[in-house]
Amino acid sequence: MSERLQCSLLLESKISPNTAYQKQQDTLIVWSEAENYDLALSFQEKAGCDEIWEKICQVQGKDPSLEITQDPIDESEEERFEEMPETSHLVELPACELARLEEIADLVTSVLSSPIRREKLALALMSEGYIKKLLQLFRTCEDQDNREGLHHLYEIVRGVLFLNKATLFEVMFSDDCIMDVVGCLEYDPALVQPKRHREFLTKTAKFKEVIPITDSELRQKIHQTYRVQYIQDIILPTPSVFEENFLSTLTSFIFFNKVEIVSMLQEDEKFLTEVFAQLTDEATEEGKRRELVNFFKEFCAFSQTLQPQNRDAFFKTLANLGILPALEIIMGMDDLQVRAAATDIFSYLVEFSPSMVREFVMQEPQQADDDDVLLINLVIKQMICDSDPELGGAVQLMGLLRTLIDPENMLAPTNKTEKTEFLSFFYKYCMHVLTAPLLANTAEERKDLPEETTKVNPVCPDNFQTAQLLALILELLTFCVEHHTYHIKNYIMNKDLLRRVLVLMNSKHTFLALCALRFMRRIIGLKDEYYNRYIIKGNLFEPVINALLDNGTRYNLLNSAIIELFEFIKVEDIKSLIAHIVDNFYKALESIEYVQTFKGLKGRYEQEKDRQSRGLSRYRRDARSLEDDEEMWFNEDEDEDEAEYMGTKKVKESEDKENLPKRTPTASFKFTFSHSAGAANGNNSASNKPASSASPARCSNTYFPHCKCLTNVDCKTIKALVLNSHI
């Protein structure tokens, strides 16, 4: 007998048309059914949560794309709220006294679960100027070292922040109150000793005006934004699942402050002009310039909060003021911090408009004689010279270069020549800078190494940081192979670049050898016969096959990648490469039997030979009529005159078939020429030789010159030779 699963009802709740349901984190639905009675449904899968949410929205006639079904006011509470006199709408607050701090803390904590009670409490706090009274009590408690009172004030201030009301934030974050708010949040009851956030904000964190800000409102807004951001990121604990939306208004408060700061700075052209002037002035002190660059970095970071159209206007303003020429100057400086900040600014510009950056750099050669000072070359050099052992900056710069040379974002209809012009510029002025480390580390001889070491291994990029850099360069070159068909092809051929890259197959760093192999794999993947001929002529499979053989029987990523390369050639049936591999390397590879790749290549090779042979045979079948006529002549016993007449007629019919192949009685073929030198001179050597002295005819297969087959020559063949000599 099978046991039936016994299910018990844990919760039954009717969907009320007026209850505010809220979906959180894709797997949670929360709501309140009565005062101080909150419920939550948690789902293991998002699909289950979405299904129930759609049912709730269907009952309430709401859009399922919303995360809250309606204004969070319970029907019964709303009716009571409307029936009360106006003065009764507010929560009755206890007197703001030291003795009642615990009562106040309990009240603030209790209303957080009810949206309508939160609203009422917020109104009460605003109407009575309660916040400033509480902060006065904080000063009193701190002066008296009243830890119990300070702990209650922590709970009160934290709860007021969770009321999520912008009107309260305006009071709490004003210049008069914000430091006292921070002070209250230092006394977390869970901590043995209070934090020292005010000390950090007033003494450690210093506000530096790189250029004096005359607008007092702007200065106040900058101070306020920094401090509120500090409260959100550092002081307040990470909210729980039920609290995650309590601080959404705080996030919006910071967001709109940043928008206002950027707008005010953007409108102050005098201020920005002065910043650019000092930034590019050679007389500016290094410390001052560092501060200016860091200011611009933060300025650009704030701009990310703007709406798209406002962000466009912001970056256009910077472009008009000369941000790119300024970056060109500061990225060429020796100060690492300045260069790092300039790189961050450059990344914002590239992300905003690659075309704007490309347009600027293409105008540079007309203004500068030295390629080294071009902006893109400065970026490449900074990538190459990154001092970080993990090359974090180099990875960032490589991503920016990739964006700039990506044809996918060069397809603007307003400028159809951008792709051609920029790629021509890049390969003429910048590619040699990018490949310089690669070419330097893959030279045939390294003078800094002992002679015996050079003979064993012509390259030794064994330094891990160097290997990482070469891997980044190869990644970018591989991208070029995929997306720059014409320009990169010419560069590879002219510099014999693939040969130099494949030298890295000797590296002890497997990831670098794999990068070199990937570069070759992308080239072969194009199935371009121009590349194939280059590979065959240079015998460029040799270092790959040597790496495979040196790897031995180890089953690793390098082994699999090399096998995949040859498997691709086999599957795609790249005939020229198959013939080259089998002709030159099959003896070294035929012992590898754990995969059928190389036997498959041999099979493809043999199939192609057979196909060519059959094609040649079909071509020669047109000459069979001549053979049939000869057979008829052998079987007829007629006089010599008639035979001679028939032979002459035969010559006239076959004058246009001078070079057609002729099949011998053993089904092999050879080419015969009716107007041979012997016939023209009247030689009759074949008729003068006895049958026994006729030498065997060798197969004249011009496609396979190594063919050794011989044909047996019988009397009919001799008679045919006599006939031909008479003709």
From TrEMBL:
Protein name: Protein phosphatase 4 regulatory subunit 3C
Segments of skewed composition (Acidic residues): 630-644
Source taxonomy: Eukaryota, Metazoa, Chordata, Craniata, Vertebrata
Any one GO molecular function term: protein phosphatase activator activity
Source domain of life: Eukaryota
Family, as annotated: Belongs to the SMEK family.
Region (Disordered): 630-663
One record GO biological process: DNA damage response
Regions of compositional bias (Basic and acidic residues) in chain numbering: 650-661
Residue ranges occupied by any PP4R3 EVH1-like domain in the UniProt entry: 7-60
All residue ranges annotated as the Serine/threonine-protein phosphatase 4 regulatory subunit 3-like central domain in the record: 103-607
One GO cellular component term noted in the UniProt record for this chain: protein phosphatase 4 complex
